[in-house]
Amino acid sequence: MSRHFLLPALLCLVMAQxxxxxxxxxxxxxLMTAIADLATxxxxxxxxxxxxxxxxxxxxxxxxxxxxxxxxxxxxxENRPLAIGHGQTISxxxxxxxxxxLIDPRPDQTVLEIGTGSGYQAAVLAELxxxxxxxxxxxxxxxxxxxxxxxxxxxxxxxxxxxxxxGWEEAGPFDAILVTAAASHVPPPLIRQxxxxxxxxxxxxxxxxxxxxxxxxxTADGQVSxxxxxxxxxxxxxxxxxx
Length: 243
Ligand code: SAH
What we know:
two-stranded antiparallel sheet; 9 strands; single chain; binds S-adenosyl-L-homocysteine; Rossmann fold; 35% helix
């Protein structure tokens, strides 16, 4: 076993013991309060003064400190995005809560995520729905996330390396799709892979234009409508689908 692996493994072992574990859960409780406060403050824009109890419980359950590099662990429960390497970020917890709440997750659903990154958003979804599929375009990030999610034990979560612009056709159609990187437009393959009655949440915009979080809904008869929720700042969606 290399030292590279041994040191983080030992640290995790040590930090899983009290009082570290108690300190993390205390910080997580404070983070949940910050998220609830921000939900109230943004209610006029989002239409959601409070996120569902199930969504809040899922965020309380997932150990965000296990999803960030060691040097970011002290900041894991601050309500902001953090660097995860390869120029990518783990999203702000409030945004994870908002996006998750916007799809109205239910225990019988199948959800697709584009942009696995650290795997944090995927884990939150896996706490709430029957089956989660998540695609990441940067292979080393995808591999790290897959190993981390396996260690944490999410049997209802499948990941793969690929260009999420084209979705995951064989696993669809999906009750909901979350895109966690900003696109210039809503990828048509994702609309096609959404079930009637399904919801898709995606940041749309470019480096030069403001990005907006968009909620796209497909009605039972297949009509598609969308609504801007609030301005956001995401890393760009890359790959074949980009401009
Ligand atoms: N959901 C992540 C945050 C991801 S940041 C988390 O919880 O940590 C956005 C991620 O989208 C990055 O990891 C980036 O590499 C990935 N990405 C960008 N373009 C993509 C594409 N076309 N297909 C799949 N993943 C993509």
